[in-house]
Specification:
single chain; alpha/beta; 32% helix; globular
Length: 192
């Protein structure tokens, strides 16, 4: 695994073994960042939240492409070793912070730090976590109006078109993986 674009392009992330972490493949990450760019434009100045961060590749990719800051959350032991190492490898120590915690328990604390422009959500598949996390993000107003939540699921998992105020913008399938982009509507979009 490596960073695909931006200032840290080509840097290799720490290797890992086992099935506790399921990273987004480089080709899917590359396609996703192209789609995000078409929706958001430049990543410069964005605040990023990476939930179930795994290796940290998604947030680090956004930081490499100009995001201002990122908070990465994961409770797993392998991630607690990998994420800080990958942050150092990419030279992002001043712009990235890692919190080892349960995502749903950590979200109320993050509401104070929000809103975030871009949220990555990649929970373990088939554990019923996508909807509770999307609803918590919406209820706690963690996503800024116009911001995007990128939820990754198994292709067979059902994901509704709405979660609280978050509305499905786009869905793409890559093999057995589906990427769902949700948006927090702006006040003008809500009035239409």
């Amino acid at each position: 695994m490596r960073i695909i674009g931006g200032s840290a392009r080509g840097r290799h992330l720490a290797p890992f073994r086992g099935s506790d972490i399921r990273p987004t493949p480089d080709r899917v990450r590359e396609a996703l960042f192209s789609i995000l760019y078409s929706h958001l434009g430049s990543f410069v100045g964005m605040r990023v939240l990476d939930l179930f961060a795994g290796t940290g590749a998604m947030a680090l990719e956004a930081l490499s492409r100009g995001a201002k800051s990122a908070v990465l959350i994961d409770q797993g032991t392998p991630s607690a070793r990998l994420i800080p190492a990958n942050i150092r490898t990419c030279g992002m120590e001043k712009r990235a912070s890692f919190l080892r915690a349960d995502v749903l328990a950590a979200l109320p604390r993050l509401a104070v730090e929000g809103p975030f422009d871009l949220v990555f959500l990649d929970p373990p598949y088939h554990r019923g976590l996508v909807m509770p996390v999307l609803e918590a993000l919406a209820n706690l107003r963690i996503v800024r109006p116009g911001g995007i939540v990128c939820a990754e699921t198994d292709r067979r998992e059902a994901v509704p078109e709405r979660a609280g105020a978050l509305v499905l913008l786009d869905r793409r399938d890559y093999g057995s993986t589906s990427i769902h982009l949700f948006s927090q509507p702006t006040s003008e979009e809500t009035m239409q």
